[in-house]
């Protein structure tokens, strides 16, 4: 009898996990297939990964687990060109903010009426543009980012676009070597930088929702986080211990984000 109830309990546990956690796929406006995970059953939160990365970068972070433990529904896509999503090779597949279009259509696909959103590094750049296009976002977190992405001629973006086309220097060599080591698609990474979204300060000034800018205290790669905070009518800045590559994984980052979302 005990054995019977054990297997009944185990079956219910497995069933519960299947209804609250799944890998999904949808076809975007131009036929590109986007892969995403969808876990939890509460208020939805969209997580956006950084450059040379994928949805799996969030897997073992304190933030993802804390969001789930706090009752949020966590949605994490592989943005086009990354992870298990399609990696188109043509310029047109990345021009005109196609990544932002993907995200809007993903949230349409999931029948979202409203949601919160968190980006890190390049994910914050994409999220900033999303905030100008989708009024369903009720709160946003821009992690690991400063003001520099608002410049359409940002030298760092141009430098990395060239690097992933073959013009590598001492600054970009480590990133290119890492991308090769994980068998990332170099052509797609080049195009992601070439057509990276640019959101003007004037457009950021129009955003009314609460926005948290959060960076590690050793992270100044992408310009002034304080200047970025000042572009938002309801902006807040928090610095936590960490460098650019590690801050988003830390408990301090998670605690600050959860407090802001609540």
Automatic annotation (TrEMBL):
Alphabetical list of InterPro entries matching this protein: AB_hydrolase_1 (IPR000073), AB_hydrolase_fold (IPR029058), AB_hydrolase_sf (IPR050266)
Protein name: AB hydrolase-1 domain-containing protein
Any one Pfam family match given in the protein's UniProt record, by short name: Abhydrolase_1
Residue span, AB hydrolase-1 domain: 44-142
């Amino acid at each position: 009898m005990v054995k019977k109830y054990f297997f009944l309990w185990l079956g219910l546990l497995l069933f519960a996990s299947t209804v609250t956690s799944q890998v999904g796929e949808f076809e975007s406006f131009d036929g590109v297939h986007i892969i995403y995970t969808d876990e939890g059953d509460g208020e939805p939160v969209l997580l956006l990964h950084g450059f040379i990365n994928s949805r799996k970068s969030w897997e073992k972070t304190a933030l993802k687990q804390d969001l789930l433990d706090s009752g949020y529904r966590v949605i994490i896509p592989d943005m086009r060109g990354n992870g298990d999503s399609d990696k188109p090779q043509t310029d047109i597949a990345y021009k005109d903010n196609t990544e932002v279009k993907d995200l809007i259509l993903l949230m349409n696909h999931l029948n979202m009426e409203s949601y919160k959103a968190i980006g890190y590094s390049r994910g914050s750049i994409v999220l900033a543009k999303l905030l100008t296009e989708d009024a369903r976002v009720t709160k946003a977190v821009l992690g690991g980012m400063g003001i520099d992405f608002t410049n359409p001629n940002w030298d760092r973006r141009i430098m990395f676009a060239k690097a992933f086309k073959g013009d590598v220097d001492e600054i970009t060599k480590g990133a290119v070597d890492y991308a090769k080591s994980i068998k990332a698609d170099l052509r797609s990474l080049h195009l992601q930088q070439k057509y990276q979204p640019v959101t003007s300060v004037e457009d950021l000034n129009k955003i009314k929702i609460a926005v948290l800018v959060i960076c590690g205290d050793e992270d100044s790669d992408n310009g002034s986080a304080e200047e970025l905070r000042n572009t938002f009518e309801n902006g807040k800045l928090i610095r936590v211990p960490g460098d650019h590559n590690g801050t988003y994984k830390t408990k301090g980052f998670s605690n600050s984000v959860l407090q802001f979302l609540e």
